Amino acid sequence: QVQLVESGGGLVHPGGSLRLSCAASRSIFSLFRISWYRQAPGKQRELVAGITPGGNTNYADSMKGRFTISRDNAKNTVYLQMNSLKPEDTAVYYCNARGPAGTWGQGTQVTVSS
Fold first, then answer.
1. Which alpha helices (DSSP H) does 2-108 contain, by range?
2. Distance (Å, rounded) from C-alpha 28 to C-alpha 9?
3. DSSP label at 53?
């Protein structure tokens, strides 16, 4: 049973923007913090941002000011708006619920390259 589905990745030039979407099952969306993580080749998976059912957000320091996480309660969807993208933002981006031992999506590739 699929519970988290990411979309919106792709190839973008440095300085560009992308918006990722994470569609969640209703039970997960209404009860748990939903977070975005990313994993670049050869690196550990790292937290990007998270949002609680009440709308409280948290961000990794390096993403503050460039990335914005939000949620649409009517669509059971969490978004990650990414602006001023850099080549070092290239990674597979994953949606997560219930923390690292919880539920993961399949990931969506983001490539920032000229």
1. 26-31
2. 22
3. T
Q: In this structure, are strands 108-112 and 10-12 parallel, antiparallel, or unpaired?
A: parallel
Give 7-59 pLDDT, tens digit per residue. Answer: 999 999 999 999 999 999 888 888 889 999 999 999 999 999 999 999 999 99
* Whole-number pLDDT of residue 114: 95
Q: Within 10 Å of residue 88's Cβ, how many Cβ atoms?
A: 10
Q: Smallest Cα–Cα separation from 21: which of 29, 9, 12? A: 9
Residue type, position 21, single letter: S
CB 89 within 8 A of CB 112: yes
Res 88 pLDDT > 70: yes
> How many residues in the chain?
114
